[in-house]
Amino acid sequence: MDELLIILHSTFRMTAPIALAAIGGVFAHRAGVLNVALEGMMLVGAFTGVMVSYLTGSILIAVLAAVLSSMILGLLFSVFGITLKGNVIITGLAINTIVLGLTAYILQVFFGQRGVFSNPKIIGLEPLDIPILRDIPILSDILNNQTPMVYVSLLALILAHFVLYHTKLGLYIRTVGEKEEAAYSVGLPVNKLKYISVLIGSFLCGLGGVNIALENVTMFVEDMTVGRGFIALAAIFSGQGTPIGTFIFSFLFGFADALQIRLQSLNIPGAFIQMIPFLFIVLVLTVVGIISVRGRTSRGIKNE
Amino acid sequence: MNKKQKKWLLPIISSLIPVMLAFIVGSFLIMLSGYKPLEAYSALFSGALSGKIAIMNTLFATTPLILTGLATAIAFKANIYNMGVEGQLYLGAFTAAFLGFTLQGTPPVIHVFICLIGGALSGMLFALIPAILKAFFNVNEMVVTLMLNYAAILFTTYLASFPFKAPGASNATTIDILPSAELPRFFQGSQLNGGFIVAIGVFIMVWFLINKMKLGYEMNSIGRNIEFSEYVGMNIAKKIIVIMSISGIVAGLAGAGEILGTHRRFVSEFSPDYGWTGLTIALLGKHNPVGVLAGALLFGILKNGGSSMELMVGVPRSLIDVIQGLIILFLAVDFLIHHFSLVTKLKERFNRKKVA
C-alpha cells in the first residue's frame, strides 16, 4: 500500500510536465494546427528557467522568463506556420532543432559549460505543503508536498475543459479546426484564433519545461526534455484532442515513468519498462483507428 | 531559359536560398558571441575540404546521411511522414551486429552481405508496423513512428546492456563483430569504408526506382493527390506498405553500414541523430535522389568541418545544429514558388523587356 502511494505521488510529479505540454497542445490541435514544436518549447522553458534562476536568484522571474521565451518560440512558429503558410510539421521540427542547437551553443559560449549546467546558485521550485490537503488521509500522501506545477497542471486541465467547451473562444477554436472554410465564411478571425491556440500551448509548455529543470534536479542538461514533447503529442492523439482524455494518457505516461524509476532501484532493466508507454500509445492509436475505420462509410484513405 | 533547364534550376535555387539565409542568420549568432563569421566559416569549409584525408573524412561523415536522407525522401515523396528512420536504423544496426558476431566461419564477402541483408530486413519489418496501421486503419504514421523510435532505441539499449553485453564493458555495447563481417576501410588515416560504396549503390537503385520505374511514378502521384490516385485505380493501401518497406530497408542499411564499417560492434545510442539529419536532407533535396546526395554532402561537410571550426576558431559546433534548424525553418516556407512568386515577377519583367 505504501509502495503504491509512493508510486502514485511520483506519478503526479512525472505527469505534470507532460500534461502541461499536452493540455496546451490540445488548443492548437483543436484549431487544426499540428504543433510538433512542443518539445522545443519545453526545452527552451527549461533552459531559460535555469539560466534566469541562476542569474537573478528569483524563482518567480525565472518562471516568467521561461514562459516568455517559450511564447516567443510560439510566435516564431505561428509566423512561419500560419502567416507565411509554411508546412507546420516541418516548421515545428525546425524549431525543435534550433532550440536544441541554440541552448547548447549559448551554454558553451556564455556560460563556458558543455552539455550540463548546474550551480548551487540555481534556485529550484519548492514542494508545497497545503494545509487542508495535509489532513486528508490517502490524498495527502499522493497530492501533498508536490511542486507548484503539479497543482498548475490540474488547474490547467479544468481551465482547458472549461474554455474549450463552455466559452465562445473555445467554440471558435473548435470551429476553425473542424471546418476552416465555414469559420471564414461566418467571419471568424481564423489566423488570430490559431495564433491564440498556439500561444496558449507555448505558455503551458514553458511551465512544463521549468518544472522539468527546476523541480528536483535544479540543473540544465542538453536535450533534457528527452522526447516529452512528442509524448505529449501522442497523448493528445490518443486522447482524441479532449483535455480530459489527453490528461489521462499523460497520466499513464507519468505512471510508467514513475514505475520505471521504482523498478530500476529493484534492479529490473529500466530500458525495458521505459518502452512500455511508447508501445502502449501505439496500441491505443491502433484500437482507436480500428474503431473509427469500422464506422466509416466513405472508401479509401483520407489524407490528414 | 528553356523548359528543361527550368525544371532543374528551380529546385536548386529554392534549396540554396534557405541554406544561404541560414548561414546569414548563423553569422549574426557568431558575431554576437564575439567571433568573426568569415573566419569561422572558412575554418569550417577548409577543415572539411582541404586535403585528401579531410575530403575522405567528409565522405565518411556523408555515408550514413545519404542513406537516411534517401529513406526519408522515399516516404516523403509519397507524402507519408515516416519519422521512424532513426528507429529503423537502430534495429538494422543491432541485427547486423548480431549476425556479425554470431555467424562464425562464414566466408568474408558473404558474411558482409548476410549482415547487410539482415539489417535491411529488420529495418523493413519495423517499418511495416506503422505502414500496416496507416494503410488499413488510417492511424497517423507520424505519431506511431515517433513513438516506435523511442521504443527501438530503448529496446536495443536493453539488448546491449543485458543479454548481449560484452563481458567487462563499462557501457552498453556488444562484443566486436568477426573480422569477416567488417566492411573494409580504404586508406590509412581515414575511417572511410565500404559503407560508402553501399550508400552509392543504394543511391543508384533509388534513383532508378524513382525516375524509371512505375512505382516511382505512383509514389509521386500518391504524394501529389492521394484521392485522385485512388480513383484512377491504384491500390493505395498496398502501395503505402511497399513504399514504407523500401524506406525501412534503406534505413536498416544505414544502421548496418555504420556497425559493419565504423563501430564494428553495437554501441547503444550510437547515432548522433542520423535519422533527423536525414529528414532535413530529404527536405533540402526536395525528395529527389540527386538532391539528397547533394544535401548529404553539405551536411557531411558541416559535420566534419564543425569540429575543426571549434578547434581553430572556438565557435562551438552546436552552431551546426542551429544552422540545420534554420535551414529546415526556411525550407518550410517555399519563398520562391508560393508566396512571393519571385520567379513569376522576374519572368514578367523579362518578357516585358523582350516585347520592348
Overview of this protein structure:
The complex is a heterodimer of chains A (304) and B (356). Chain A is an all-alpha fold. Chain A has 13 helices and 2 strands; from the N terminus they run ααααβααααααβααα. Chain A has a two-stranded antiparallel sheet. In chain A, helix 1 (2-30) packs antiparallel against helix 12 and helix 3 (59-83) runs antiparallel to helix 10. Chain B is mainly alpha-helical and 356 residues long. Chain B has helices at residues 3-32, 37-49, 52-77, 85-102, 108-137, 141-161, 195-212, 214-224, 226-231, 236-263, 274-284, 289-312, 318-332, 335-339, 342-355. The longest helix of chain B has 30 residues, at 3-32. In chain B, 54% of the residues are buried.
Largest sheet of chain A: 2 strands, antiparallel
Question: What is the rounded distance between the termini of chain A?
Answer: 45 Å
Write the element-wise H/E pattern of chain B from the N-terminal end onward.
HHHHHHHHHHHHHHH
**So what's the overall shape of chain A?**
globular
Low-pLDDT stretches of chain B are: none
What is the top-level CATH class of the largest domain in chain B?
Mainly Alpha
Compute the number of structural domains of chain B. 2
Query: Which architecture of chain A per CATH?
Result: Orthogonal Bundle
| DSSP E strands of chain B, number | 0
Task: Provide a compact summary of the structure.
By secondary structure, chain A is an all-alpha fold. Chain A is built from 13 helices and 2 strands, in the order H-H-H-H-E-H-H-H-H-H-H-E-H-H-H.
